[in-house]
Amino acid sequence: MLLGEKLSRLRKSKGISQESLAENSNISLRTIQRIETGTAKPRPYTIKTIAETLGVPVEQLSSSQENPIEQSQIAITKIKLINFSSLAGLAIPFSNLYFTIFFWRKNREIATVNEAGKKIISFQLLWTLGALLIVFLTPFFQYSIIQSHVIGRFPPTVFLVYIVLLVLNLVFTIRTAIQLQRGKFEIYSFIPVLF
What we know:
The protein is 70% helix and 0% strand. The protein contains 9 helices and no strands.
């Protein structure tokens, strides 16, 4: 039985309304509703407070009997969201970091999502720093090789190098998505976790 179902049954068996539970536990009504509908996963403190308010052991609410396959699918879905959020960097520079960190922070309570999210963020951070370094050094390398910053009528070399780097990021993101689709959580094994 899922946590939301457990909470709803327990609350109703004690004759307590959602409003009363929210008021007595100092937890917002919206949070109680979201927990019961399964759209929010509460923090341990929230579970402890609700259990104390209902007068039951914390274990009664926190022990979840969710299907392990279902939990794995939920984790894969959340990791995919974090992974694909890095593609925002194709449109807006540095948003690859912002969105991956944002979605990781929202879903890091699941251990596998936390670890995989850290790997994805570490890769995006290293890619961003590497891309900046390469883009800034490209004119110097070009000038030292051909004594010019421009090659005929082609677009600026810096622009072309940046496009190649974006494609490289896209390739790694798609490769990671394929690994996740196959149920492999070991992603970016060549990247150290930076935090």
